[in-house]
Amino acid sequence: MFKKGKKVIDLIDRHYNLVLGCFNSFVSFTESFFSSGASEKTMELCNSVDMLEREADAARRGIVDSFLDGAMLSQTRREVLQIVEAVDKVANKCQGIAWHLIYEKVEFPDEIKPSISEILSITKEQLDKLTTALNTLFDDDDSLVGDSDVLHEIKKLESNVDEFEIRAIKTIFKSDRQLALKNHLKEFISRIADISDIIEDISDEIQVIVVFRKV
Fold first, then answer.
1. Per-residue CA distances from 30 to 45, 114, 187, 208 (Å)
2. φ and ψ of 105, to 5 deg
C-alpha cells in the first residue's frame, strides 16, 4: 500500500509540473508568435506545448490506473481526481490555442498585444498561488480553513484578467477592421483569458474539498 501511495504521489507531482511547463512554453510560444509569426522557433515552442500536454495526459491516465489498483482511500482518490482533471484542462487549453493560432494564421494587432501579455503574466501569478494552495491542501489543510487568503487572491487576479480582456476587446471593436475579423480576434482573446477562469475554478474546488473535510 505504501508503494502504491508513493507511486501515485509521484505521478501527481509529475502531472502538475508538466502542466506548469506546458503553460510556460505556451507563454514563450505566444511571445514568439507575436514577434515572428509561425517561425521555426515558434513552431518548436508549439511542439513543446503539444509534447508537454501529451505527457501530462499520460501522467493523468497513470494516476487513474493507480487508483483502479487501490492506491489511496476512496475519499482521497475522489478529491485528488477532481483536482487533477481540473488542472489538466490548463494544458489542454494551451495546446488547443497554440495549434489553432498556427493553423488559422491569426494576426494580432500591435495595440492589443500588451493586454494579452498582461493576461498571461497575471495567469502565471495565479498558477504560482495555486501551487501554494495545493501544497497547503495536501500538507496542512487546516491553514486553508483558518486563512484562505491565497484562494481569494486567485479570484482577485481572475478579475484583473477580465479587465485586460475587456480592454483588448474594446480596442478591437473600436478599430475599422471588418466585423468577421473583430469576432475572430475576440474569440482568441477570450480563449486565452479562459485559462485564468480554469484556475479560479480549481481554487473553488479546493475550497469545497476543505469545507467537506471539516464536516
1. 9, 12, 16, 34
2. 50, 50
